[in-house]
Amino acid sequence: MQAETRAALAEWLQTETGADRLEITGQKLLSGGAIQENWLLELDVSGGRLDGAERVVLRTDAASGVDESHGRPEEFRLLSAGFEAGMTVPEPLILEAEGAVIGKPFYVMRAAAGTANPRILTRDEKIDPLRGELARQIGREMATLHAIRAPRPDLDFLGRPPSDAAAQRIAELYGFLDSLPKAYPALEWGLRWLELNKPAAGPSALCHRDFRTGNYMVADGRLTAVLDWEFAGWSDPLEDIGWFCARCWRFGVDDREAGGVGARADLYAGYSETAGAALDWSQVPFWEVLATVRWGTIALLQGERHNSGAERSIELALTGRKAAEMELDVLQQVAEIERSKSDV
Amino acid sequence: MYEAPGRKALIETALDSFQTEILPELAGDRKYLGLMIASALAMAVRELEADEDADPVRRVLDAFAALYGEDNVARAGADPEAQLDALSRDLARELREGVYDRDLTGSVQQVLTVLIEEKLKLSNPKFLAAREYSQPTPN
Questions:
Q1: CB-based contact (8 Å) between A338 and chain B?
Q2: A322 and B92: CB-CB below 8 Å?
Q3: Which end of chain B is more exposed for a tag (fewer CB within 10 A), N or C?
């Protein structure tokens, strides 16, 4: 961040939060944001709403965006909804929706402690004794989120809840595949299987839709923040469960079926405890297949951003080439489900 | 008109010195970038090898022939790559139309498995061997 931008930001923050004095004493660009830029800011504040705040994160758009993701103002409202519902999220502090201060919209939230790095979270042995509680905590967070139901005037930008979330997802994915220059018959096969095996539609809730290892922070074995709300929307709560548990988000630690960090039974137990009732867990394999097809398709869309010349990036190029991993996953998952059906 | 070393040997040599001399020096975000660079170069080497022996695309076309018949595969185009694209497009459309609904896990799944395994041999053979996901894995 340029000195000029930083001075303008400090002045705006001071005025908006009613501080007597506000200085930005440090800044650091945080890693892991292809779509968003996250700046850790160190503040020295006295007075006003941020009195005493030391570490905050400023989140704004990076150079490029993904079409289906929300902008910063919408994400701020989603984060606020989660915070007010009692979720463990970074406290949202202030939104600048106009782009008048640093040239693009941004919001500021309190910084959370810990790491979101999936390799550490799935492999650090120091976490091992705490994994049961961590998985239960994640389940409780999801249940708290899913208690948010329409109508919510503050979230009207999400549109109306779908009458059949799975059908809506399948239609969206067909549309994404049609936008690609090549055909992907293994993903088509997975989508056809999903169409033929779609469970009856249930009521929609607010879903995060990218709740997976890598998108939440953990410090000392405890979840400290659920991050990255840009894909949230009304959906079937099982979509979040399936996305979290899908093999492609276990980062190679397959036997810890809850996101590579814990046991599935603990995740479900934490969920049921907070929700007051279990979901129909027998439907989760369906939603894991859907998650795998979705991630494979998103990977191809990201690769196409590179291939089309819209945005040259080795990360996007290689993400596109990852899709074959999800294609094999889809073939194997469906074969396993079908085998277990015929065993009964 | 090309001098030795050829394209494949050039990339291999570059990759080798990158992996032994540069990659160990990197940390954090730079390490992540370095792993991606190595992964891209290794993929390019494997695909140059595949171009030399032409077996991968042949194996996939043979699998399609088991489903569609030799004649129909031959009719799909002159160039194997174009054949493969056309056959993939046909199969995708038929799947969507429900042609295989009665036996989704039958012979059509075998064709798809051959197709994806051949793709993975090029893009990420470690995934086939040990389900090791490739770089980049998003944070």
A1: yes
A2: no
A3: N
